[in-house]
């Protein structure tokens, strides 16, 4: 939606379920790590904190509500950031597992992948010579033969069950067709504006990280929804992160950073924390004369129900 003040929402995806511990020693794995890095990212300027959970024993992705409860309430108590819980989980989880914690917490926001896809980072396995945990190599290499599933029926269930509790969504669109999937559910009356469209670039199986693709996504969303009815945001995977999200802001959109999306802060340099990435993009945006949205701004822009309605 049009925002005359041009405030830019910074989202931070803290840990995700794609990168494995061997890819970075700074990737938060334990509840305490996730809590501390999320709080630091919020203090650095992230209005939205996007959260996955990991098993503290070996860092593998987990849908366990008990693990989520070991860090989500602490983040909510320490910050006023919007807490955004994944419904994507990982390719190894069932829909029931992915929804287990969101249906209990009924958060202000959840991520929602707008279609099934061949989501994979399996080529990266060849670049890792030493694996920290036994599960990692099979997990990464196995993505070559895994599909992330979100059928129309799956998406409809998420919209009805979580949307019925007032949760709104970060609609993750990895390809042009995902915008048309979103439009289908708008036509069915299951999604109302303002929409928060997170365009994802640079993941194998989805759109490449080409600036031209961003232009196509933006113009298609304008045509399908009308620019006044949605907020555009971008995440760039890996080395494409900072350049693409900066372009998003210049095109009138918002930005997402975080160790879920890239474990680097510069070419060949690992990011030491999520907050380091938040501080970098904030500096870039402020030097370009953009104003950074506060959590209160984000709640108003996105029509969220408010943190006081959530029971993490």
Automatic annotation (TrEMBL):
GO MF entries: 3-keto-5-aminohexanoate cleavage activity; metal ion binding
UniProt KW Metal-binding keyword: yes
Entry superkingdom = Bacteria
Report the leader peptide range: none
- The entry's keywords: Metal-binding, Plasmid, Transferase, Zinc
Which cofactors does it use? Zn(2+)
Cross-referenced Pfam families? BKACE
Cite the InterPro entries for this sequence.
Aldolase_TIM (IPR013785), BKACE (IPR008567)
Transmembrane domains' residue ranges = none
Q: What is this protein called?
A: 3-keto-5-aminohexanoate cleavage enzyme
Q: Which organism is it from?
A: Caballeronia insecticola
Lineage, please? Bacteria, Pseudomonadati, Pseudomonadota, Betaproteobacteria, Burkholderiales
